DNA sequence: CCGCTTCTTGCACGTTAATGCGTACTATTC
DNA sequence: GAATAGTACGCATTAACGTGCAAGAAGCGG
């Protein structure tokens, strides 16, 4: 692994979780803690994080003053943006990602790092527009009759088109998320498309704002144990979170910069 | 293996993985690491990657300069808006309208009266987004691989989908418009889609800003006598306009409001 | 066909970056 | 105020780097 690559990964991690632990990083990247500390020290010197005893935290304040151009700062302004940055951190280079119609998914698209090569398959024109200026993002748009209410295309054509694609990761825009019932949606057509996407994807991720958690919508999309990754905010219902953890879901807490 | 061939392969790999390791490349292409380093150095000098210790990383996109469509559409905002209003006036209630990818067409979509019931078929996600809040506009989106440069989808899937539809009116986004040559486009894929749309539409309309008039782009879309309606600004080249009038085209002059 | 140039490649060299370890220091905890 | 965990510093080692140079291949003119 390249050194620079590692520091990028650490920044990614920082944005995703809001904090990093030196010892964990050392084990994960198979380097000594010294090296990690050096990385963190450099990042802190560049104003990209705040070094603390045992690790580092996401810098809270305004944009780092040093950066002249400072690429679009994905500094998480509000909850949804933080969630989106954390969720985007799950995407590995070169992966194929499904993003269905949801405001959270639009935020995730906006949080994809500009240097990350990725193929995004979506039924949401707004996501395609949001990714127009990502030089390394390829976008495949699922067409059909556009549902202005939900902001996406849900026809049979969209489903038929996506069934030709095998994705690595599907961020399902959840209308409801419950520890026993699983992922649910408000609309039958929406639910059908989500189910099709889930079937064509290796992994399933849910990035849920706290108001969605522990709620149930009428139409089932996927059972709780099908959720591979769950990205949540600190104030998410702990009981639901625990339930998912017991099912083997990887839970990611979108960090709050203090 | 030729040198240039190798550098192309390296770029390919960069784009795919977001990073390359010099040692791996050296082994894969059976050359010394020195040679790989030289390649990477040249690529970096050309701005195609970022050289780091041990390899190279994909460079982040150059600038967040908003989508190309947006950029173009802000140029002559007033003129374009007047043109769009006049063009939108050609749409009768209940009609089915093709709008392909063009900044003028985006403006036309925005100029469609909210009370007008219409079905818009487009390959441009930005148009779908613009029409989201039109309660009486039904939008059918043509999907496929999204071309960020042009802001639309141009694949065979888009053409196949639109060929199932018979429209009343097609606003062709013209890259060039000439009294003898007719409508032309800059891109072959773009031209092919435009031709397919023209074939599926009863009438063909061109709303052209004055800089497009009396110019020719490389790829032919439709002959001049196929244009049923021409919407222009007052300062359009009078010779070209007259030529179209002689061919039976209805010429509409976008009124100057003030 | 022969010399010439140009380009690419690999190798040898000294230089620099990155890492891990030992040691001494400092923060945190109880 | 120890005990513990984390940190800073210096140093040695390794890997990667840049440069200069020479060998070989391809192109060119005579």
Automatic annotation (TrEMBL), chains A, B:
InterPro entries: Carb_Metab_HTH_regulators, DeoR-like_C, DeoR_HTH, NagB/RpiA_transferase-like, Tscrpt_reg_HTH_DeoR_CS, WH-like_DNA-bd_sf, WH_DNA-bd_sf. It comes from Fuscibacter oryzae. Coiled coil: none annotated. Residues 3-58 form the HTH deoR-type domain. It comes from the Bacteria. Pfam families: DeoRC, HTH_DeoR. This is DeoR/GlpR transcriptional regulator. Keywords: DNA-binding, Repressor, Transcription, Transcription regulation. One of its GO terms (molecular function) is DNA-binding transcription factor activity.
């Amino acid at each position: 692994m390249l050194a620079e690559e590692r520091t990028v990964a650490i920044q990614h991690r920082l944005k995703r979780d809001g904090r990093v632990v030196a010892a964990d990083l050392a084990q994960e990247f198979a380097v000594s803690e010294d090296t990690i500390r050096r990385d963190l020290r450099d990042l802190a010197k560049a104003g990209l994080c705040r070094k603390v005893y045992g690790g580092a935290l996401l810098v809270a304040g305004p944009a780092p003053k040093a950066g002249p151009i400072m690429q679009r700062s994905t500094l998480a302004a509000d909850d949804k943006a933080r969630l989106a940055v954390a969720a985007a951190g799950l995407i590995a280079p070169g992966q194929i990602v499904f993003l269905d119609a949801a405001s959270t998914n639009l935020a995730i698209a906006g949080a994809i790092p500009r240097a990350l090569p990725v193929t995004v398959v979506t039924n949401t024109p707004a996501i395609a527009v949001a990714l127009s200026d990502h030089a390394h993002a390829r976008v495949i748009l699922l067409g059909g009759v556009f549902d202005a209410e939900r902001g996406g295309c849900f026809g049979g054509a969209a489903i038929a088109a996506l069934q030709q694609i095998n994705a690595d990761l599907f961020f399902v825009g959840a209308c409801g998320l419950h520890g026993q019932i699983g992922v649910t949606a408000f609309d039958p057509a929406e639910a059908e498309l989500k189910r099709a996407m889930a079937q064509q994807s290796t992994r399933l991720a849910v990035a849920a704002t706290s108001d969605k958690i522990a709620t149930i919508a009428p139409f089932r999309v996927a059972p709780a144990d099908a959720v591979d990754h769950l990205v949540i905010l600190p104030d998410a219902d702990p009981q639901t979170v625990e339930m998912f953890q017991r099912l083997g879901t990887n839970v990611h807490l979108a960090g709050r910069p203090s």
